[in-house]
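User: Hello! I'm new to structural biology and keep hearing that structure can be predicted from sequence alone. Could you demonstrate with Kinesin motor domain-containing protein? Please show me the input and the output so I can see what each looks like.

Assistant: Of course. The first part below is the input, the amino acid sequence of Kinesin motor domain-containing protein. The second part is the output, the predicted structure written as tokens.
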Amino acid sequence: MDPEILRLREGATLNRGLLAFGNCIRALSNPSTAELVNYGESMLTQILAQALGGNSYLLVVACLRQGDWELNKNTMRHVAELQQV
């Protein structure tokens, strides 16, 4: 199979997983929706379900890139939401 096609498919799968992760974090950070989290949206959220919603401690390392304001802003928004979990 063409490597370019594989790369595009992998990118779409990764984006779907990150979107599902963001949805879970948003739901968990809001007390009114914390019990209604859908961890089944992606393999990533299924793997992280116990760490995110279980009785555990979670350490997050966020990486920022100089000059990439939009990406950094989104990263920091996710970190702020994670602090509410």
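User: So the tokens describe the shape?

Assistant: Right, they're a compact way of writing down the 3D structure. Reading them back into a model, for example: The two ends are 42 Å apart (CA to CA).
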